[in-house]
Amino acid sequence: MPEAIQFLLPRPEVLARRSIIIDDLCGLLPADCVIHEARELVPFETDAFVSYRRMPLAVVLPRTTSQVAAVMKYCHRNSIPVVPRGAGTSLSGGAIPQEDAVVLGLSRMARIIEIDYANRTATVQAGVTNLSISEAVGIDGFFYAPDPSSQLACTIGGNIGMNSGGAHCLKYGVTTNNLLGVKLVLVDGEVIEIGGKHLDAAGYDLLGLVCGSEGQLGIVTEATVRLIAKPEGARPVLFGFETSEEAGACVADIIASGIIPVAIEFMDKPAIEICEAFAKAGYPLDVGALLIVEVEGSEAEMDAMLENIVGIARRHAVLTVRECQSATEAALIWKGRKSAFGATGRIADYICMDGTVPLSKLSYVLKQTSEIIDRFGLRVANVFHAGDGNMHPLILFNANDPEEAMKAEEAGNEILKLCVDAGGCLTGEHGVGIEKRDLMRHQYTDAELAQQMAVRAAFDEDWILNPSKVFPLEGRG
Amino acid sequence: MLIPNSETDAAYVIRNAAADNKPLSICGADTRGFARLNKPAEPISSRGLSGIVDYDPAEMVMTVKSGTPVSEVEAALAANRQMMAFEPMDHRGILGNKGEPTIGGVFAANVSGPRRLIAGAARDSLLGIRFVNGRGEIIRAGGRVMKNVTGLDLVKLLAGSQGTLGFLTEVTFRVLPVPPMTETIVISGLDDETAAKAMAAAIALPVEISGAAHLPQTVRSRFIDGVLPEGEATVLRLEGLTASVDVRSQKLAAVMGAFGPVGKLGMENSLMLWRQIRDVAPYADGTEKPLWRVSVAPSAGYHLVSALRLEAGIDAFYDWQGGLVWMRMEADPEAELLRRYIRALGGGHATLIRASEAGRPQIPTFEPLPDAIAALSARIKAKLDPAGIFSPGKLG
Q1: Are B192 and B259 found together in one domain?
Q2: What is the DSSP letter of A139?
Q3: Could you give phi then psi for residue B46, rounded to 5 degrees?
Q4: What pLDDT, on a 0 to 100 scale, did the predictor assign at position A260?
Q5: CB atoms within 10 A of CB A179
Q6: What is the pLDDT of residue A1?
Q7: Taking every annotated instance into account, which residue ranges of this chain make up the domain FAD-binding PCMH-type (chain B) (predicted)?
Q8: What is the mean pLDDT of chain B?
């Protein structure tokens, strides 16, 4: 497959010292924490943005913060790029390595350190999976709110790197709104602690800056996150509409009515068909778009909210209304949505866009998106978090057809530019990674990018940390 | 005082100041300007940049120029039954000053009130900004959408930076519907420790508490004209649709009965009470007695107060489930003692909001940072304000 996205050229002086570097790393860490055999490096070549791959120089899998610090100190002193990695589920290529880089994997730091119900916090190592936090505290009536689709696999460290969201963010916010503290290893190996169990930290909001920085500012090894009391119950309702526009208008009216559901998910016709064929969730096949709206609370509260919401949907000529009577029915409604990416992967290769637009522009952007896709002669399935304008067009293509693959990338770029021009942004929750890096100039002026890179330089002057990502390679100064 | 009346103007003024190495003290209306600088600086105010730029209630997002009065923003929101969920406090009472607080000041100081517990701080609602950096360049960060991870989050960095990193010219923030009903459950007669346990138990229930404060005997009578029941008052706020608040308040009252006598305040008194908690009404006392704002883990608040009580004359009450302690000292600010105890109790920070002119200069207003973080913060500042002209020395 052709590669439109460039990586930094490997540093020849690093490549030349490969075996010395591996020996040194083996000296710093226990033998089983260093991977360097070509065969064993293969799983680390790419992440969930599979169209691009690079063989790293080595992989280290430390078990402690001091081991992470030792690796950073060594790599910094020797100008060796470091690419941090959680579970490798990034959809934007955030964890794809490069030939001269040491991959620093946090998967062996997967311990829940402390659960503190009096303060409603969990302190965990960075390699703990997102879902395992909610699993650990669920029995006591708590949960951790951000819920990316990959929550079974993805790690808290990766969530912090990308400021991950999920379907339930409409009410509870994304990672940055649920993070209270981190232990951060700086590029030179110094370890700092930011925040803690108190609700706001002193000084500049370094926590806010680190969250979503895509591994460019340091390595998070521990995090303290906020726990929330689980609602008594949650119930989704499914609506089918004739057109995407009608569904989009309904979303805007629900939000405007003053009700904040925990989730509003949108699927267009192609997405409905793909998901139904896979999950047999009983989705209506005679509609142009569907919405899944979920509310939370006691039975009485949910009844009241759903009555309002169904009323709004009826004003938008809703064709199908499926309220559920049991947990099984609720799970079925969600099953289709949650399997969207997997189900799409069965029928075609796809790239998943992540642009976010103001709610008032949803219908317009959906329409323009299908025009762009038609122009390229491709197919698209739209599945996304409608309540916050975070769109996920899945552009379908055949990866074995280089020309079509290139077209898919081009169409994706046009869609993202469309999102920016509509007053939105390139990425709502997946991150820039390599995927959207070269579009950054469409969203930011040179001065704005230079300002961001200057702040980056306050952490990592020499571009050691995840250096091929986020910022366009030209004009880095 | 410099009062630029456009963003371009502001950029020009700042570019010149940088070229001349002339320090500027960034402010709105200076109603929260309690921190001192370490060298003389000419004030530059945002008040010439005023007005709502864009507000579509259906989108729940508002864009305003930074010098817009908070009261104007609140009025526009109220007309559409919306609000700033983070409930920014008004410092004028405790600081005894006049002037019209600006929206830029709210975000530059990351000012949040009781609902911070559930709805996040000002920085969590802030979606986008425009600001002038220390080079006189106009920089945009963030945007108008709720989910945005495009590049480094300079929005968060500028929020709460107290005018030391940039001059905010425009802010875009998320707003929420005003809940139709507000109720407050009062549990009477709990000591500080039991109150902390009661609040933790309450917040663990699925009733969505949007405010949890403990008002000891010394301050109780100074809220809502003294109508709170006798004894210490532990207060828990519930908001939402009326029917839902009714159900939840019954549920909450039933559980809280195990801690002490339970009462309800009703809507009117609730609204007034939480506004007074937000604005620290008991210490809006017209004095210059040292006043601290302390942020610690919720379970550490009462430990801190009881430890300090043995060594100094203090009065205190608690918001944020016990994690936000408002503490008035009877005589000396006792900064070192207080900060030592905070460290010993697991960390947090203390800000000296009010002090006499004589007492202030010796005491760092904001919590001194550990060396590594202080060094990193200085590097970051140098990247936004290379000439070091913005509010020098304000953060220590």
Answers
A1: yes
A2: T
A3: -85, 0
A4: 83
A5: 25
A6: 46
A7: 1-178
A8: 96
- Position of tokens 């951000």? A146
Kindly report the CATH number assigned to the domain that includes residue B353. 3.30.70.340
- Establish, for the pair of chains A and B, how many residue pairs have beta carbons separated by less than 8 Å: 258
8 Å CB contact of B116 and A199: yes
Q: Taking residues A357-362, report their average pLDDT.
A: 88
Structural domain of B210: 181-278
d(CA B283, CA B95) in angstroms, rounded, equals 9
Q: What is the per-residue pLDDT across A258-306, written as a single tens digit (0 to 9) for each?
A: 788 999 999 999 999 999 999 999 999 999 999 999 999 888 889 888 9
Q: What is the pLDDT of residue A363?
A: 84
Interval A73-93: pLDDT, tens: 999 999 999 999 999 999 999
Distance of alpha carbon A158 from alpha carbon A94, whole angstroms: 9
Q: Of B320, B395, B308, B312, nearest to B345 (Cα)?
A: B308
Inter-chain residue contact B156 with A208, CB threshold 8 Å: yes
**Number of domains forming the structure of chain B:** 3
Specify the pTM: 0.96
Residues of A in contact with B161 (CB under 8 A): 204-205
- Interchain pair B147, A297: CB under 8 A: no
Query: What is A348-437's CATH topology?
Result: Alpha-Beta Plaits (3.30.70)
CB-CB neighbors (< 8 A) of A305 in chain B: 241
Contacts of A258 in chain B (CB under 8 A): 81, 177
CATH number at A112-229 = 3.30.465.10
User: Is A202 in contact with B156 (Cβ distance < 8 A)?
Assistant: no
Report, at the CATH architecture level, how domain A12-105 is classified: 2-Layer Sandwich (3.30)
Q: Write out the two tokens for B167.
A: 């001059």
Residue of A nearest to B56 (CA): A360
Which chain B residue has its CA at the smallest distance from A200's CA? B295
- Whether residue A149 is predicted with pLDDT greater than 90 in this model: the reply is no
> β-strands B167-174, B61-65: how paired?
antiparallel
| B376:A118 CB<8 A | no
